[in-house]
Design goal:
about 230 residues; mainly alpha; Urease accessory protein UreF; globular
Length: about 230
């Protein structure tokens, strides 16, 4: 019996839905759609999740993972970090990126310690960078020698899994419904990975205005379960 690829177990650890990054406390605008009853059941959530994946996540975190994995210098990572902070116009999303990024940096530093992650952590601690989980994940993936399509698929699907778990609690929908949504998302993730691989660096930050507006509105919602 052949041994699993050396990166498999570290990658599974970093993509675990129980990873303590704080993802469970963020809906990235989903709660605004719940409040307006635009998302209210399995079907409407599945539609929202696909739109979030293709209209925002692909052009933000997805592309950032790819660019971080290809970053050649410390300055490249700093440039990416500045771009990720600048493109996150909703304040809650920007703060979520920084808080989750700090936790992801700590965890990746344990799972895949390397000079690039140490330098990024130093820059975050010094205030030169804000921090973002996609960048830490991309740097760790490069250190682990994860093939880029697998790295992207894992990050994107992990994000969808976290959002689905939040939807199960917030809508609510059942656990089986959540699994149906995730199974249907397999093809969507494959399509998103193909899209990410064809993007240019200047595509970083493209998003749908309606998603950003919903994310901005969330900060002023009267009652909230989530931080974003």
């Amino acid at each position: 019996m052949s041994a699993p690829a050396s990166y498999l177990l570290p990658l599974l650890q970093l993509s675990d839905s129980a990873l303590p990054t704080g993802a469970f406390s963020h809906s990235f605008g989903l709660e605004s759609y719940l409040e307006r009853q635009l998302v209210h059941d399995e079907a409407t959530f599945a539609t929202w999740l696909g739109q979030f994946l293709h209209q925002q996540l692909t052009y933000s975190d997805g592309l950032a993972v790819r660019l971080a994995a290809a970053a050649e210098t410390r300055q490249d990572v700093r440039w990416l970090d500045r771009r990720m902070a600048a493109q996150a116009l909703p304040r809650q999303v920007r703060v979520a990126g920084a808080t989750m990024g700090a936790r992801m940096l700590q965890i990746t530093g344990l799972v895949a310690p390397c000079q690039a992650l140490r330098e990024y952590a130093e820059d975050v601690a010094d205030g030169q960078c804000a921090g973002h989980p996609a960048l830490a994940f991309g740097l760790a993936g490069r250190e682990l020698a994860v093939p880029l399509p697998e790295l992207l698929s894992t990050y994107l699907f992990s994000t969808l899994t976290s959002l689905t778990q939040n939807a199960i609690r917030a809508i609510p929908i059942g656990q089986n419904a959540g699994q149906r949504v995730l199974r249907a998302a397999h093809t969507e993730v494959a399509d998103a990975v193909e899209a990410v691989l064809g993007l240019e660096p200047d595509d970083l930050g493209i998003t749908a205005p309606a998603l950003e507006i919903a994310q901005m509105r969330h900060e002023h919602q009267r009652a909230r379960m989530f931080m974003s």
